[in-house]
């Protein structure tokens, strides 16, 4: 696997070795020892999966304080634009984002450490998204920042009218009003 640090400290793109033959392909999707050698200690405790149709935007989500989750995300079917926003107050890139296209074709993975908000937009007819997290789901600590927050200014490649979002995500708060990480 190739581990590449992005322009935001702690956020990584990981490209697996894909072995293709007459039957299809094989790849290692996560290898703890290698991950820890390249990025650092991790203890993933839960795997999540969601399916979404074209134009679905989920985000920008995070869990507050001690409930923060690191996430290792990838796409099994379809294509998404995945986005991580730095919410670490002491970080020189606070409020900045990094985005990457993840698809069943490029098989890229994206590692988002604790202290970030995360979201993705589905660019294919359908997408199956899967991710590991290193901290328990804590609904009481959930928070959502507006996908179109002016200060973050994410370039989403789909027109606003085409977006499909949850009520929770439509009612998200601005970054300036959000509880961030000390
Ligand atoms: C995230 C989560 C949700 N749920 C439940 C709550 C709810 O009834 C249903 C759907 O939840 P949501 O609408 O929050 O699902 P979704 O919008 O897909 O939320 C996810 O979005 C992406 C961008 C992330 O980064 C994730 O951490 C998570 O916040 O699933 C769990 O039971 N466990 C979980 O870990």
TrEMBL record:
It catalyses: dTDP-4-dehydro-6-deoxy-alpha-D-glucose = dTDP-4-dehydro-beta-L-rhamnose. Its EC number is 5.1.3.13. InterPro entries: RmlC-like (IPR000888), RmlC-like_jellyroll (IPR014710), RmlC_Cupin_sf (IPR011051). The keyword Isomerase applies. Pathway: Carbohydrate biosynthesis; dTDP-L-rhamnose biosynthesis. It holds the Pfam family dTDP_sugar_isom. SUPFAM superfamilies: RmlC-like cupins. Keywords: Isomerase. It is an enzyme of class 5 (isomerase). Belongs to the dTDP-4-dehydrorhamnose 3,5-epimerase family. Catalyzes the epimerization of the C3' and C5'positions of dTDP-6-deoxy-D-xylo-4-hexulose, forming dTDP-6-deoxy-L-lyxo-4-hexulose. Homodimer. This is dTDP-4-dehydrorhamnose 3,5-epimerase. The lineage of its organism: Bacteria, Pseudomonadati, Bacteroidota, Bacteroidia, Bacteroidales.
């Amino acid at each position: 696997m190739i581990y590449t640090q992005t322009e935001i400290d702690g956020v990584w793109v990981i490209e697996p070795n894909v072995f293709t033959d007459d039957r299809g392909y094989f790849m290692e999707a996560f290898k703890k020892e290698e991950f820890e050698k390249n990025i650092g200690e991790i203890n993933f405790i839960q795997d999540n999966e969601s399916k979404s149709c074209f134009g679905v935007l989920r985000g920008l989500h995070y869990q507050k304080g001690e409930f923060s989750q690191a996430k290792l995300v990838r796409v099994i079917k379809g294509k998404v634009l995945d986005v991580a926003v730095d919410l670490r107050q002491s970080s020189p890139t606070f409020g900045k984002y990094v985005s990457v296209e993840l698809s069943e074709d490029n098989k890229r993975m994206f590692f988002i450490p604790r202290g970030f908000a995360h979201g993705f937009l589905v660019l294919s007819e359908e997408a199956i998204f899967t991710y590991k997290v290193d901290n328990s789901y804590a609904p009481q600590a959930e928070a959502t920042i507006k996908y179109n927050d002016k200060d973050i200014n994410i370039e989403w490649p789909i027109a606003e009218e085409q977006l499909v979002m949850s009520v929770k995500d439509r009612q998200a708060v601005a970054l300036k009003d959000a509880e961030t990480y000390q």
